[in-house]
Specification:
Number of domains: 2
Distance between the termini: 73 Å
Number of strands: 10
Helix content: 40-55%
Strand content: 15-25%
CATH architecture of the largest domain: Alpha-Beta Complex
Number of helices: 12
Order of helices and strands: EHHEHEHEEHEHEEHEHEHHHH
CATH class of the largest domain: Alpha Beta
CATH superfamily of the largest domain: Spore Coat Polysaccharide Biosynthesis Protein SpsA, Chain A
Structural class: alpha/beta
Length: 334
């Protein structure tokens, strides 16, 4: 068999210098380059970043066995940037891995992924952490997920086969971030990241296309990804901000698309429908609260993006009134 060739996809849009360099350095430090004869091709797509990718990578010495391509394109969001990177990978790349430009991999990430893929998996993901002093993102993984894990190599490596429905793990958020994903590349692969929405769900939609309800999935309970603090259009949106509104709008679009275009298992269907109802209620409740103070723009933008939300307005209004009555009764008791 030919030695594996990894294709690493990095979308780039940052303002803080040094983050991309740290991400790429974590690729160059991968132990798999020493333990196997693999090669790596890195494609960085600069999504019209305020800080150009070439500037952040100036002076970087790329060792033998690693190719680095930087492509700059008009701003289209992380999904469009990842799609452009996938399209630019050479055909010899038989394994795809993803790394956000402000994240870093542990040195053994690709080696552990390769071990899991060699044991029969087609799709691999691992645990991740945002801050060293915080629990990992999958520290509270539900019992149904843990009970569906069977150890690879008698559990000595912390690598597991996942025997449950692939889609329910995806839509439940157990794939913590795109940077944890490594999968086999099929040359007939049509899965792509949606570009219509890019603030919520684009990574989940990609995985759902790739896996469907079935898929030979492997999981590592080791923290192999450290998430950075660069530009993040999902995290850190404050209540009532434009960013929060746009995340709600994109969440509704993603969940509608998942129900309409992907074959989901019964558990995943129920989960997505419940989360869709919650997102509709939450975006309208926030809009109604803000409209009380003459800030009707939130509500107008929500209804403009998803006109069918008009049918959910009565339930959202009822929820707002219930919240107000509860708050009033609490004040009276105190």
């Amino acid at each position: 068999m030919n030695p594996p060739r990894f294709g690493v996809v990095i979308p780039f849009f940052q303002r803080q210098p040094g983050l991309l360099r740290l991400a790429v350095d974590s690729i160059l430090a991968q132990s798999v380059m020493v333990t196997t004869q693999c090669t790596i091709q890195i494609v960085v797509v600069d999504d019209s970043s305020p800080l150009p990718a070439n500037q952040d990578l100036a002076g970087l010495a790329v060792p033998p066995g690693i190719d680095l391509i930087v492509h700059r394109q008009p701003n289209g969001g992380a999904g469009a940037a990842r799609n452009a990177a996938i399209d630019r990978l050479d055909k010899a790349c038989d394994t795809l891995a993803f790394l956000d430009s402000d994240d870093v991999w542990s040195p053994d990430h690709l080696e552990r992924a390769l071990q899991a893929l060699s044991a029969g998996a087609d799709f691999y993901f691992c645990d991740a952490v945002r801050n060293e002093d915080e629990p990992s993102l999958n520290a509270d993984a539900p019992d149904w997920f843990r009970s569906a894990l069977a150890p690879i190599d008698n559990g000595a490596t912390g690598l597991y086969r996942y025997s449950g429905a692939a889609d329910i793990a995806v839509v439940s958020g157990l794939v913590p971030t795109t940077s944890t994903i490594v999968h086999r590349r099929r040359h007939d692969q049509t899965a792509r990241f949606p570009s219509r929405y890019f603030r919520f769900g684009e990574d989940q939609y990609y995985c759902l296309q790739l896996l469907g309800t079935q898929g030979r999935v492997a999981y590592s309970n080791a923290v192999e990804v450290h998430c950075g603090r660069g530009v993040n259009i999902f995290a850190g949106n404050t209540t009532g901000s434009d960013g929060q509104l746009l995340c709600f709008i994109d969440e509704i679009a993603f969940r509608k698309d998942a129900l309409a275009t992907v074959s989901l298992s019964p558990d995943a269907t129920r989960h997505v429908k419940r989360k869709l109802s919650e997102a509709k209620r939450n975006v309208l409740k926030q809009g109604l609260w803000m409209a009380r103070n003459d800030h009707g723009r939130w509500l107008r933008r929500s209804l403009s993006a998803h006109p069918s939300l008009i049918y959910s307005l009565p339930a959202a209004l009822g929820a707002v009134l219930a919240d107000r009555l509860h708050a009033s009764s609490t004040r009276n008791v105190n």
